[in-house]
Amino acid sequence: MTPEERILALERACFAQPWQSVTLTEHSVYVVEDYGYALGVHVGGEYELLRLCVLPDERGQGKGRSLLERFMNNCNGVVFLEVASRNVHAVRLYEQCGFVENGRRKAYYGDDDAVCYRTVYQ
User: How confident is the model over 12-40, as pLDDT tens digits?
Assistant: First the structure.
């Protein structure tokens, strides 16, 4: 199975509205395991984490933190991400890993705001 196929299988298992396609390019930064993945892009000296996904039965075991740390080890510079404000587990993880809120997008997820985070990793 290709990394793209593994990511799509994990998407379907984790999200009510999964991504329908994934194309990895030379700008992609990713870590894929059987239990989840972290996927982002590197453009113009900056990184953006697009998705962090852990299978429901595997959550609460530090696997999301492991994926995030491994993703960050592939980054050298400013890293951005956004997350739904009601996703308290993700918010806590990102803040514990050194991300700092640097803005909000009101009603970005319909009835929920997107919290924008930033950190520098080297």
Answer: 999 999 999 999 999 999 999 999 999 99
